[in-house]
Design goal:
Elements lengths: L1 H16 L14 H13 L3 E4 L20 E5 L3 H18 L13 E9 L2 E10 L5 H6 L12 E8 L4 E7 L1
Parallel strand pairs: 1-3
Antiparallel strand pairs: 2-3, 3-4, 4-5, 5-6
Length: 174
C-alpha cells in the first residue's frame, strides 16, 4: 500500500514536470497529458500575491533568488491597490519579454511577495516569487515574511519594479 502511495507521488511529480512544453510546441494546442499536469500543479502550489508588512524587513530583504537589490536605505509596505496593479503589469511583462517561458511553472502558481524598498531616495518594489506547497508551513509564512530557509521553497525568482518609470528590471531566478 505504501509503495502505491510513493509511486503515485512520483507520477504526480513527473506530470508536473511536463507542465512546460518545449519551445517547439508552444503554439500547438496542449496535449491531454499537459492539461492534466497543469491542473495537478494548480492544485499543488499556493499561488497568490501578498504585500509584506514592515515587520517582514526586520532582518532586511531576504530572498531565495540569486540576485537581490543593493544600496537599500529603507523599506515600505506596498499598498494593496498598488500591489494588484503591479501584479497585473508583471504578468504582461513576463509574457511580452518571454521570461515566462523560462519559468518551470506558470507565474500565477508562485507566492509573489511584494516588498517596497528605498534606494537613492527613490521607491522600488521587489517581487519575490516562491513556489511552495499549498497548506504547508512555508506557504503560511510566505504571507507574512521572507522565508527563513529556502529549503522548503521548490523554486524562486525575483524582479524589481521602478515605481517612477513603471518598468521592471533585474530578473533573477534560482
Amino acid at each position: 500500500m505504501r509503495s502505491i502511495a510513493i509511486l503515485s507521488r512520483v507520477f504526480v511529480l513527473a506530470l508536473a514536470a511536463l507542465v512546460v512544453a518545449p519551445a517547439s510546441t508552444r503554439g500547438a494546442p496542449p496535449t491531454p497529458e499537459a492539461l492534466r499536469a497543469r491542473k495537478l500543479a494548480a492544485r499543488r502550489f499556493a499561488g497568490m500575491a501578498v504585500s509584506l508588512p514592515q515587520s517582514a524587513f526586520a532582518h532586511g530583504l531576504r530572498v531565495c533568488a540569486r540576485e537581490t537589490p543593493s544600496g537599500i536605505i529603507g523599506y515600505w509596505k506596498v499598498p494593496r491597490k498598488a500591489m494588484e496593479r503591479i501584479d497585473a503589469e508583471l504578468f504582461l511583462h513576463l509574457r511580452k519579454s518571454g521570461l515566462d517561458k523560462g519559468l518551470p511553472f506558470s507565474a500565477k502558481l508562485y507566492v509573489r511577495q511584494y516588498a517596497g524598498y528605498v534606494r537613492d531616495g527613490m521607491r522600488f518594489v521587489y517581487v519575490n516569487a516562491l513556489l511552495v506547497e499549498k497548506g504547508s508551513r512555508a506557504a503560511r509564512e510566505a504571507q507574512k515574511r521572507f522565508p527563513r530557509s529556502c529549503e522548503a521553497v521548490k523554486g524562486s525568482w525575483g524582479i524589481q519594479y521602478d515605481t517612477q518609470t513603471k518598468k521592471f528590471m533585474g530578473f533573477s531566478s534560482k
